[in-house]
Amino acid sequence: MAFAYAPAPESRAVVDIAPSYGLFIDGEFREAAGGKVFKSISPSSEEVLSEVAHAGGDDVDAAVKAARTAYSSWSALPGAERGKYLFRIARIIQERSRELAVLESLDNGKPIRESRDTDLPLVAAHFFYYAGWADKLSYAGWGPDPRPLGVAGQVIPWNFPLLMLAWKVAPALACGNTVVLKPAETTPLSALFFADICRQAGLPKGVVNILTGDGSTGAELVAHPGIDKVAFTGSTEVGKAIARTVAGTDKKLTLELGGKAANIVFDDAPVDQAVEGIVNGIFFNQGHVCCAGSRLLVQESVADEVLDSLKRRMATLRVGDPLDKNTDIGAINSAEQLARITALADSGEAEGAERWAPACELPSTGFWFAPTLFTGVTQAHRIAREEIFGPVLSVLTFRTPAEAVEKANNTPYGLSAGIWTEKGSRILWMADKLRAGVVWANTFNKFDPTSPFGGFKESGFGREGGRHGLEAYLNV
Ligand code: TAP
């Protein structure tokens, strides 16, 4: 671990965080009806960033009513007019992206290089992309008159707070729906800044409502009878509970859940390139990525070479201050998530896998986990089966492409996969056999608003992004 050069961190003075925030309902910030609040802390320093209102049932009701009232005029607007608002929001996001990137890194713990160069550009790109669709829905192949659904209740996780908001809000609004969105308890701040951006853009009141709170707020929202559509991203466990809540109603549902992706390296892959892809696949965003390449499947004949090179590369990764532009791995999002990662990593050792991490000094305050890999992993081990959602890689080997497919598909999940090989025919053969919604070839964790994203099996259903992402918000 090299610490030779330490540039000045991005200053947190870039963003003005208020000591407290209310719920954003009907275009105004207001206290929760029950007066309840919770604290949002920085996972890297454990300092309190702000005190945030905790929405209860009455607040959910008020937000849904505001969204319902706004729906009649918003859905009646010509698509080109809705598009103008979305273009405006996209431009303001670009203008305020430095502020938002620092905020996201403070509240979530992710490295500023990632929030600045990945999250924020993608957030703006999603709004631009769906802004462009707003006046073209009649030409998208569903006939002349696709209709919005009504009020969408959207619940998002903490790993990409603003990007998950963009994935949900932009297509919903483009199609003429109004939304009530609940961000995760540990990362409420960028959604509240987004509320301010909606005001700045002059978005009619009630079109976007933001309810901060915990899982109980999310549960109230998805159960509310005034919701026409539920869009959820998060754990498979909560996704199943939501599916049970929605069952028997006429609410439309999309679920984007967990993953346990295989990143498959063949013996003809350029090793340096593959190693960069493995590192990006599992250590990007501390491994808090539903499509993370958390299982490395490496062909037996090159396993030693790939692992040697991977370990050398891992030893150069810098863990630390999310606001330092040289940081590769930031803070784990919460003490609770750190405990989950630690328990699963410990289970790997207990079950007989071999644990390795580079020498790595972790800060004394905050929540941290060193980049870690396990070799000698079998398919029965928990670390090969369960989503760790942290910077922990489980390495398995294979001999033949058929064995790689069998191992890759041996999971209840089916969100993503990666293939590293020089052979185009093998890529096509593998992509056809892998049960994964997204298959990357000679790259990993590449996202684009034009491209649909979503899973098979217990990774959920429905697609976000691209033209497919519109279908989730339309009666077609
Ligand atoms: P979840 O508990 O599923 O949380 C996701 C969102 O759902 C949060 O906004 C959460 O609120 C809310 N929620 C919790 N219980 C709910 C309920 N009964 N009804 C409606 N909404 C509810 O995920 P998590 O705690 O953030 O992480 C747990 C595990 O989920 C992780 O270890 C990881 O395996 C997985 N995960 C997957 C993804 C993706 S993108 N697939 C993202 C995050 C986490 P609160 O945050 O306020 O509790």
Concise structural overview:
The chain has 476 residues and is of the alpha/beta class.
Description:
The chain is an alpha/beta fold. The protein folds into two domains: 12-257 and 459-475, Aldehyde Dehydrogenase, Chain A, domain 1; 262-441, Aldehyde Dehydrogenase, Chain A, domain 2 (3-Layer(aba) Sandwich), CATH 3.40.309.10. The chain has helices spanning 57-76, 79-95, 97-108, 112-133, 161-174, 189-200, 215-223, 236-246, 271-283, 303-314, 335-350, 382-385, 401-409, 424-433, 468-471, and strands at residues 20-21, 23-25, 28-30, 37-41, 48-53, 147-148, 151-155, 178-182, 208-210, 229-233, 252-256, 262-265, 295-299, 354-356, 372-375, 392-398, 416-420, 438-441, 460-461, 474-475. The chain has a seven-stranded mixed β-sheet with strand order 14-15-16-13-12-17-18, with helices on both faces. Helix 2 packs antiparallel against helix 4, helix 3 (97-108) crosses helix 4 (112-133) and helix 9 crosses helix 10 (303-314). The longest helix is centred in the first third of the chain and has 22 residues, at 112-133. It is globular. The termini are far apart. The site of 7-thionicotinamide-adenine-dinucleotide phosphate has 26 residues, from helix 7 and helix 8. The active site is at residue 256. This is Aldehyde dehydrogenase family protein. It holds the Pfam family Aldedh. Residues 31-476 form the Aldehyde dehydrogenase domain. Belongs to the aldehyde dehydrogenase family.
